[in-house]
Design brief:
Helices cover about 45% and strands about 20% of the residues. The protein is of the alpha+beta class and about 270 residues long.
């Protein structure tokens, strides 16, 4: 079964229309149809097409990395077939070959323009959403946890040592006794990985993290994560290392809260 057919079947098994999937992934219906019909650009050199494939696959429960690999293999086979077909067309009639080439070129130009437009729209929507949901951080106070702010970036810091740990542990115990815990999750990608994240019910990340990228998420009530390749990430929760959530290429969905966050920490 080709990649487009796999995507379509997975979508239909989840009883999702193309419009539903467009709302989830923020990808236009026309581009979703193109993915299902295998009408993509050269995926090995197109960053956005790979991102769309990963977003589609993650939304319907497929492995994003396997879908991309299968698409690459399928494209290679298609290119070999196209080379043989072009040779036959040239032998049978040069005019027909030129007409088919012109149609293919127009299709690539139109799809390329659509990909660029969607990428721009997604960036604008992300920028507007980030500006609307950001909460200014209050002045730092070493004796109190800071107010949760979602989606901010800052360098990862290793867990505090010795004396600092005593004060942090004391504050955490007080917060837990009062039914209140501030969650701070720091994420570093050592390999490419799709990340979907929400903090306190607000989406704060929905993007492809390249190797070396970082993301910091803060929340009061809970953090929900959708990972396209769980083994590609290193995470710290409230300064403590997070245990492995899966392997490279494994799709994982988790929710961290003030009640269960300790279960995600390394022993």
């Amino acid at each position: 079964m080709d990649v487009g057919a796999q995507l379509r079947r997975a979508r239909e098994e989840r009883d999702l229309s193309l419009s539903d999937l467009s709302q989830i992934t923020k990808i236009r219906v026309a581009l979703l149809k193109a993915l299902e019909n295998n009408e993509t650009l050269t995926i090995s050199g197109d960053f956005y097409t790979r991102g769309f494939l990963r977003a589609y696959a993650a939304a319907v429960g497929l492995n994003p990395e396997e879908i991309v690999r299968e698409c690459l293999a399928q494209e290679a086979e298609t290119q070999l077939g196209s080379t043989g077909g072009a040779r036959q067309a040239e032998e049978g009639g040069a005019g027909q070959g030129r007409a088919e080439g012109q149609r293919a070129s127009r299709a690539r130009v139109l799809l390329g323009a659509g990909v660029a437009a969607v990428a721009l729209i997604l960036y604008v929507l992300w920028f507007v959403r980030a500006g609307r949901t950001s909460i200014p951080a209050p002045p730092l106070d070493s004796s109190k946890p800071s107010v949760a702010t979602a989606g901010t970036k800052e360098p990862l810091r290793e867990p505090a040592l010795a004396g600092a740990d005593a004060e942090t542990s004391s504050n955490s115990a007080v917060d837990a006794a009062m039914g209140f815990t501030t969650l701070t999750l720091q994420i570093r990608a050592h390999k490419e990985c799709w990340l979907a994240a929400s903090a306190d019910g607000q989406r704060v990340a929905y993007r492809l993290m390249p190797a070396g990228d970082q993301e910091t998420i803060r929340a009061q009530d809970g953090i929900s994560l959708g990972l396209g390749s769980a083994g590609a990430l290193t995470m710290f929760l409230n300064g403590a290392p997070v245990r492995s959530l899966g392997k490279i290429g494994e799709v994982v969905n988790v929710r961290m809260t003030g009640e269960n966050y300790r279960s995600f920490l390394s022993p």
